[in-house]
Specification:
Chain lengths: ~120, ~110
């Protein structure tokens, strides 16, 4: 069974640009969550999608958005990039949302550098 | 809101020795899960062990075990017979009813040969 696939693995963007990151969950998993990891703030929850609907949202500005497609693949978009958006963006998939006991499987992340 | 605290930023252990990583959390929920994740240099988060809050018995997975003290809201990870491959960043995480994971800041574990 293939794991969680995130593309691209590395990305360099200029301030003011926008970026789209992609996440393909494990086959059969319908819940996808996104996390931002930085040295200063650690791992912070961005949002969670299930059945093409956003279920949860973290405390991030509206420049951060996402969506989920009917095949459960998810994309997140960051508009008007700022230097502080440089981070490792991790995607996690679970079979179903709303269940505390469900293990979340992570991808290898996309390393975004904003210059 | 939940908080997870890992107060030690770094620890070092001699190969074959035992090391304990500390974690405390705060929540008003009664039903939740706690996790320890390992993040090696490859960056992929790997689940090490999980504990159900309503189970008093501490979880174990081979060389990894936890000391879960619910009243004290403490959840430490013990690694026995440490191996060079255990060197990584370790994150303690909380997952409650809303299913999002709340992570601690992490601890960098180094293993001395």
């Amino acid at each position: 069974k293939a794991g969680v696939t995130q593309t691209p693995r590395y990305l360099i963007k200029t301030r003011g640009q926008q970026v789209t990151l992609s996440c393909s969950p494990i086959s059969g998993h319908r819940s996808v969550s996104w996390y931002q990891q930085t040295p200063g703030q650690g791992l912070q929850f961005l949002f969670e999608y299930f059945s093409e609907t956003q279920r949860n949202k973290g405390n991030f500005p509206g420049r951060f958005s996402g969506r989920q497609f009917s095949n459960s693949r998810s994309e997140m978009n960051v508009s008007t990039l700022e230097l502080g958006d440089s981070a490792l963006y991790l995607c996690a998939s679970s079979p179903e949302p709303g269940q505390a006991n469900t293990e979340a499987f992570f991808g290898q992340g996309t390393r975004l550098t904003v210059v | 809101a939940q908080t997870v605290t890992q107060s030690q930023p770094e620890m070092s252990v001699q190969e074959a020795e035992t090391v304990t990583l500390s974690c405390t959390y705060d929540t008003s929920e009664s039903d939740y899960y706690l996790f320890w994740y390992k993040q090696p240099p490859s960056r992929q988060m790997i689940l090490v062990i999980r504990q159900e809050a309503y189970k008093q018995q501490n979880a174990t997975e081979n060389r990894f075990s936890v000391n879960f003290q619910k009243a004290a809201k403490s959840f430490s990870l013990k690694i026995s017979d440490s191996q060079l491959g255990d060197a990584a960043m370790y994150f303690c995480a909380f997952r409650g009813a809303n299913s999002k994971l709340t992570f601690g800041k992490g601890i960098t574990l180094s293993v001395r040969p």
